UniProtKB/TrEMBL annotation:
Boundaries of every HD domain copy: 211-333
InterPro entries in the cross-refs: GGDEF_dom, HD/PDEase_dom, HD_domain, HD_GYP_dom, HDIG_dom, Nucleotide_cyclase, Rev_trsase/Diguanyl_cyclase
SMART domains named in the record: GGDEF, HDc
Record organism: Tumebacillus amylolyticus
Domain GGDEF: start-end pairs: 49-184
SUPFAM superfamilies named in the record: HD-domain/PDEase-like, Nucleotide cyclase
UniProt-listed Pfam families: GGDEF (PF00990), HD_5 (PF13487)
Domain HD-GYP: 189-380
Protein name per Swiss-Prot or TrEMBL: HD-GYP domain-containing protein
Length: 380
């Protein structure tokens, strides 16, 4: 049997390196980036330098895969990889560490310097918006980033990556976190922003101006009812936030379904209904408030139990869901759509009263109608 030729050591190394970088993102794979990190740390030990790593996670990657398919998800990862290459320095190494996670090795770099680089990466990814193929719409692609420094945060590769992962989890959603030392203890400082949610609203405005106006109205009507009910001020604020973001999941509903003027098919309706759970998952990643989550998740439940996603009925539906449901319906009725004219305020109030006890909580419905009528009499 003829022996296979063996590539010279230098050529073989370049060939294997080429194969690893020619995968989906064109970046190093998990094994290779670990090898490079080990080599960088060994050199740092000899020279007395610091080494930092950035552990990056694509926010809300699963909903993008679920709504647009794995091909679009792959394109998102390629897009992120390209932005990372454009932002890092020549001496840095980038690897795809997991499904939607990346690791950047930063030789001769302190945590503070790494944090500055992380801010630049986030800024670039936010500004270089990703447009889904065949839909001509921008998707909200953002990153959460954890920062860790060797040897101050860890003395081994395993512990260094674990420290960066832990910081990233504290940074979620679209924040940057690092460990800073106070004596022998560790205290976690997290730099966060509302950039991700702002980007969601911006992307939603690109897709559907109606939904943005509708969401602002729902926030207003939700606050109106919450105030009339005498709920605590903190709860009123949480309900207003739930109203503002109750439809944010529609940013991941494909345009042909979201903007379809006619009746949706059964399959399309199933896709449309998924915006409720997507909205809930997005909001839950940013806020721990149960009131907010309930308002978003349950605003399409019906008092008679025929709603979705859980089919709860009566007062088993969380109060926040019952409140947002009324505000949502009233706003929808009083705004023009491309396929129908809006109802007058009187017509919409009559519909709320007619559906009290079936679609809406009867007591909340009457309070809401009275407050809308009272507001109208006070307006000049």
């Amino acid at each position: 049997m003829k022996e296979q030729p063996v590539l010279p050591r230098r050529r073989r190394s370049l060939y294997v390196d080429f194969l690893e970088r020619c995968l989906l993102t064109g970046l190093y794979g998990h094994r290779k980036i670990n090898e490079l990190l080990r080599a960088v740390i060994q050199h740092a030990d000899l020279e007395g330098h610091s080494v930092s790593v950035l552990y990056l996670d694509v926010d809300d990657f699963r909903p993008i895969n679920d709504q647009y398919g794995y091909e679009t998800g792959d394109l998102v990862l390629q897009h992120v990889g390209e932005q990372l290459r454009l932002e890092v320095r020549a001496q840095d190494h980038i690897g795809r560490f997991g499904g939607d996670e990346f690791l950047i090795v930063l030789p001769e770099t302190t945590a503070q310097e790494a944090e500055n680089l992380a801010y630049g990466i986030q800024k670039r990814v936010r500004e270089q918006r990703f447009f889904a193929a065949n839909y001509e719409e921008a998707l909200p692609v953002t990153l959460s980033i954890g920062v860790a420094e060797y040897p101050l945060d860890a003395r081994s590769i395993k512990d260094l990556i674990a420290a960066a992962v832990s910081a990233k989890e504290h940074a979620q959603h679209e924040g940057i976190a690092k460990l800073q030392r106070r004596g022998i203890s560790y205290e976690l400082f997290v730099a966060k922003s509302s950039g991700a949610l702002e980007l969601y609203l911006l992307s939603l405005k690109d897709k559907d101006t109606y939904t943005v106006q509708h969401s602002e109205d729902v926030a207003d009507y939700t606050m109106l009812l919450a105030t009339a009910l005498g709920l605590p001020e903190s709860m009123q604020v949480e309900l207003r936030t739930a109203g503002l973001f109750h439809d944010i999941g529609k940013v991941l509903i494909p345009d042909p379904i979201l903007k379809k003027p006619g009746r949706l098919t059964e399959e399309e309706f199933v896709s449309m209904k998924s915006h409720v759970t997507i909205s809930h998952d997005i909001l839950a990643a940013h806020y721990t408030s149960e009131v907010m989550r309930d308002g978003v998740k349950h605003h399409h439940e019906r008092y008679d139990g025929r709603g979705y996603p859980t089919g709860l009925c009566g007062e088993d539906i969380p109060l926040a869901g019952r409140i947002v449901a009324i505000a949502d319906a009233f706003s929808a009725m009083t705004l023009d759509r491309s396929y129908r004219k809006s109802k007058t305020v009187d017509e919409a109030l009559a519909e709320i009263r007619r559906c009290a006890g079936t679609q809406f909580d009867p007591k909340l419905s009457e309070v809401f109608c009275e407050e809308v009528e009272k507001r109208r009499t006070l307006q000049p």
